[in-house]
Amino acid sequence: MDNLRIDGDRLWQSLMDLAQIGATAKGGVCRLALTDVDREGRDLFVRWAEEAGCTVKVDAVGNIFARRPGRNPDLAPVMVGSHLDSQPTGGKFDGAYGVLAALEIVRSLNDLGFETERPVEIVAWTNEEGSRFPPAMMGSGAFAGEFRLEKVLATKTVDGPTVGEELKRIGYAGPEPLGGRPVYAYFEAHIEQGPILEAEERPVGVVEAIQGIRWYDVTITGMEAHAGPTPMEVRKDALLAAAKMVEAVNATALAHPPHGRGTVGEFRIMPGSRNVIPGSVEMSIDIRHPDADALAAMDGELRSALERICDAAGIDGRIEQIWYSPPTPFDAGCVAAVRRAAERVGEPFMPITSGAGHDAKYMAQVCPAAMVFIPCKDGISHNEIEDATPEDVATGCAVLLHAVVEKALETT
Ligand code: HGY
Ligand code: MN
Ligand code: MN
Fold first, then answer.
1. Whose CA is nearest to atom 1 of ligand 1?
2. Ligand 1: does its nearest atom lie under 6 Å from the Cβ of 136?
3. Is the pTM of this model over 0.90?
4. What would the mean pLDDT of 191-210 be, rounded to a whole number?
5. Domains and CATH numbers, the chain
6. How many angstroms separate the CA atoms of 97 and 191, rounded?
7. Which ligand is in closest contact with the Cα of 381?
8. Residue 1 has pLDDT above 90, yes or no
9. 128 lines ligand 1 (CB under 6 A)
10. Which of 226, 243, 274, 384 is the most exposed place for a label (fewest CB within 10 A)?
């Protein structure tokens, strides 16, 4: 195992080559799930995986599996990967790093002529971001049995096609059944997407858990009216109530320090004319906390806030929870494998809880799973300026390699 090493330059070049697909003017990427640009990124990954001798299969929701054989084809594989889709103004590393680090592991094992007992399977999950088609982690959630295939395929964008239609259109409605097969262990490398590792000067994060997430759709309905003749005291202004709800989301997060998080990322005002009092507002809410009880308390606080705000204004407010991802601890055995790998690589590391959701969350429901984090510049992600260093990218991949190989050599 001591001769195990990866080629950091090759990994960095692959990251930069992939980043050309969907490249944005500010240096980021826009590869929204199941768009033509996503297809281009998928096709490039499939070509690279096949060039590395992998057998590539695609399942019914477009998850891509690239298998490197081990000595014993009957043993369940060690899976390693992440996602290729991005946010609308995403960065070069979110998701792509985990998929290409996994590819670099396969390329390096090939270079070394290193045989594992178990197959090693690279995976690129469909629609991890949930930006174009909520919820997030859709492909891995479907694989893990969290989301029914029919519901996933019928999911529509705000004003467009369904997941099923887009999968067919881009040629990734695969023949493989959805999940239901044994996976021995799952590993994922990812940028932290927060400031902790950089601040603590630790190139490696040994991820022990993922915090809980709740997503909501909120609709606030008042009365459209003329902006001129309508006196202030008789208005039923949906936007004014929605603005107070944005404040309430922020207040709920701040009421559960230090880990509480609350975000309103989507906001649609109808009819959206400057001389019409807004009749309705549709808004998204994303709240997070590592503790399930705290997250449940935040849920209650949001619902009471909406009731209070809308009652006071004499208008209607509806809140629907569309997704709940409970706080998820990772498997102690896999976390220990990552820690041993970090010790072997010899770079400073620390335990960390993930603030972001990841596909590893759903894989943790079907097999032992763990993650490796590396720092990103100023902790910024979901932003075109997202950045990481070639050194950290290589270090994280080396840690991933040792953890994956340790598990892929286990026969029982
Ligand atoms: O929302 C998340 O945490 C992830 O980036 N999909
Ligand atoms: Mn991600
Ligand atoms: Mn993301």
1. 357
2. yes
3. yes
4. 98
5. 8-211+327-408 (3.40.630.10), 212-325 (3.30.70.360)
6. 8
7. 3
8. no
9. yes
10. 274
